[in-house]
Amino acid sequence: MKNVVLYYSFSFALGGGEYLPLSFISELQGKCRLTVAVDMASNFGRSCEAFGGGLGIDRSAFEIVQVAPQGYNPRRHGALTSHYRFRRLKKLAEKADVCISAACIMDFGRPAHHFINMIDFGDAAFTAFAHSRPQAGGAAAKAKRFLSDSVLRPLLGMRSRRSIVCDPRERVYPNSLYVAGLMEKFYGRNFGGDVFYPPTLFKPAGAPERRDPLKVVYIGRIVPGKLVHEIVAVVEEARALSGLGFTFHAAGRIDQDPGYGRMLRGLAETRPWMKLEGALYGAEKERFLLSGSYAVHAERDEAFGISVAEYLAAGLVPVVPDEGGAREIVDDPALTCRDRGEAARILVRLASDGGFRAERLAACAARAEFFSKEAYLGRQRELLRGILDGAR
Fold first, then answer.
1. CA–CA gap between residue 25 and residue 276 (Å, rounded)
2. Which among 44, 172, 304, 363 counts the fewest CB atoms within 10 Å?
3. Is position 333 within any domain?
């Protein structure tokens, strides 16, 4: 029976990314001697309560090891904390046949399997490249990164994120072809064959009572990077082009970025067709998504875009940028846009052309099946079986 070490941070801020490591645990328990390495053991329990329902996780079937120091605070994470965690992971890895990081790139001191779930996974130069912008910070920040990656880490026996990614012995699984392509351009390695898409957990319990035929929705974080104000502009242009009464409803915490939240409130005060719904969960979230007909996603350089997969599962027709991970989820050129004007024209055609709308709904339903939990678990089972079979 093979020994497997699986690492995930399980932070105090629950999001949704916890499902992948928890489903890995569910699949691996009973098939190997599994050790789950976490930063905080207490947070693992909270994650199980929030996202483990239906997975059948047996806490007695694996060992939980905390690899961060006692009193760990991710907001004060520094080089010494990283070294402490590295030493703990390396010790666990010495007895393992397989090491898996479900939290992007981690140094186990030996080749491992790394599942990418975001663009910003610890290499500042790659993050800047992926977002087409200079590296954050000035000369002092660059000097600090150089000392950390090229001096301090080697002295402590640790590798930088970039050196791990560039090591051909490491297996790296981007969460979209978009991210795989960016990584190949930057690092010079081909990651296309290792793409592993995450699932959407959202599955409506029933059919909608009634959909508003002109309602456009957004659900997710209300922060500048999500470009919610750009979605407002798209809907406004669609209204002007068509004379139709499109409405826009955005769900999410409005206080995550107070300045941005104030700006959106100002837009809503002068636009009676716009409504900020606040954070919605569970049955309220389901009712919200099932009440609309369309969705618009504006972020162009997103690694994946789980909300877009939720739109598909809810029976919405999403309009997405012609680049980024969201484009792959929809996989329909007729629903991708290069700019605000094209997005508005697609909305107008969806609302006014019944044949076009029916074709797009059918295509979206097929894509929703691909990203369903059931289809995902089948892909996961096959992948993890291959990883275990290929271990030493």
1. 37
2. 363
3. yes
Q: Are 63 and 35 in contact (CB under 8 A)?
A: yes
Token pair in block for residue 272: 């009676």
Residues 285, 290, 291: CA angle, nearest 5 degrees: 100
Q: Are residues 77 and 222 in the same domain?
A: no
Positions of the chain with pLDDT under 50 = none
- Who contacts 118 (Cβ-Cβ below 8 Å, separation ≥6)? 104, 303
In 3D, which of 303, 312, 283, 289 has the Cα closest to residue 370? Answer: 312
DSSP assignment of 315-328 = T-EEEEESSSHHHH
**How far is residue 303's CA from residue 174's CA, in Å, rounded to a whole number?**
9
- Assigned token pair, 29: 């328990």
**357 lies in which domain range?**
215-371
d(CA 16, CA 47): 9
Q: How many residues does the chain have?
A: 392
Does 227 reside within a domain?
Answer: yes
In total, how many domains does the chain have?
A: 2
Answer yes or no: are the C-beta atoms of 299 and 324 closer than 8 Å. yes
How far apart are the C-alpha atoms of 263 and 253, rounded to whole Å? 14
User: Is residue 142 located within the same domain as residue 268?
Assistant: no
3-state helix, strand, coil in the chain (%, to 5): 50, 15, 40
Which tokens go with 10?
């399980």
Residues contacting 179, CB < 8 A, separation 6+: 116, 119, 130, 191, 195, 303, 304, 325
Nearby residues of 76 by Cβ (< 8 Å), 6 or more positions away = none
Dihedral, CA of residue 258, residue 263, residue 265 and residue 266, to nearest 10: 150
Name the residue among 304, 38, 74, 170 with its Cα closest to residue 162. 170
Q: Do 293 and 222 belong together in one domain?
A: yes
Task: Indicate whether 252 belongs to any domain.
Answer: yes
> Between vectors from CA 11 to CA 9 and to CA 17, what angle results, nearest 5°?
75
- The dihedrals phi and psi of 130, each to the nearest 5 degrees, come to -65, -30
- Residue 266 burial (CB < 10 Å; 0-12/13-18/19+)? exposed
Q: What is the pLDDT of residue 390?
A: 86
Taking residue 330's Cβ as centre, other Cβ atoms within 10 Å add up to 24
Quick one: 249 and 281 in the same domain? Answer: yes
Q: The domain that contains 153 carries what CATH number?
A: 3.40.50.2000
